[in-house]
Amino acid sequence: MEKPLIIANWKMNPTSAKEATELMMKVEGALARMRRVEVVIAPPFLFLSHLSRMRKRCKLGAQNTFWGDTGPYTGEISWRQLKKTGVSHIIVGHSERRLFLGETDEMINKKIRTLLSQNFFAVLCIGERERSGHDIPAVVGEQLKNALIGVPRGHIKNLVVAYEPVWAISTASFARPDTPDNAFRVAVYIRKVLSGLYGRGSAEHVRVIYGGSVRAKNITPFLLDGKMEGALVGHASLDPQEFMDIVRRATQAMRH
Ligand code: PGA
């Protein structure tokens, strides 16, 4: 793997532009001394323009998009608007959107198709709602395949698949991170599905990352034993010290 990809999903935080600025400044300050890592900050839409102007090493991500470029879609934000704001990565199909906002595989597919054709990095979130036994839950493969319907081989190099078991997300009751071993098995399975769809050579370009209660204390085993190529970090990304510890450990893990 080249550089690990660490994505901060700020969700609906913080409350003010001032706090968002402070958070970004702390991350940028610490990142200035690190080279072998790619960090993406995905704040609420509201703060994107401002953070885009102050960003240096961080890349800018969005937590969602609409699939059309312009038109009468009240309340939506289009990928074209995001592109003009400096956004390079867009999270699609997060479980909170699937669960609370009624996002379907079909909507997710439209977004993925559009984003990949427009040269964005599309961060597709997939994951089962409940912990199953040892078997890899069928829904992981289904969500992945459904999201990629009609996506041509030439477009998948900018795909990032985030395996986020819903039960491991820190806001779930009794949440706890997955084990690196299990994450590894799922990552292998995801790669197998991708290879089946696109051939091994093309599938190798897709990055597979892990999300769900990532902290400084557990990032290293996910990268080294779980063979994940990065992480999607929710709660811990709001604490700049913890977040930068995650980033630092990710860069160190890569030296192994
Ligand atoms: P968490 O969230 O790190 O707080 O578990 C991850 C996510 O929902 O993307």
Beta strand count: 8
- How many individual helices? 10
How is the largest sheet built, in terms of strand order?
1-2-3-4-5-6-7-8
Overall pLDDT level: 96
Task: Please identify the structural class as seen in this structure.
Answer: alpha/beta
Bound molecules: 2-phosphoglycolic acid
Q: What is the makeup of the main sheet?
A: 8 strands, parallel, barrel
Give a written overview of the molecule.
By secondary structure, this protein is of the alpha/beta class. It contains 10 helices and 8 strands. The protein has helices spanning 17-31, 48-54, 79-84, 95-100, 105-117, 138-147, 180-198, 200-203, 216-224, 240-253; strands at 5-9, 38-42, 59-62, 87-92, 121-126, 159-163, 207-211, 230-233. Helix 3 (79-84) links the parallel strand 3 (59-62) and strand 4. Helix 1 runs parallel beside helix 10 (240-253), helix 6 (138-147) crosses helix 7 and helix 9 packs parallel to helix 10. The termini are close together.
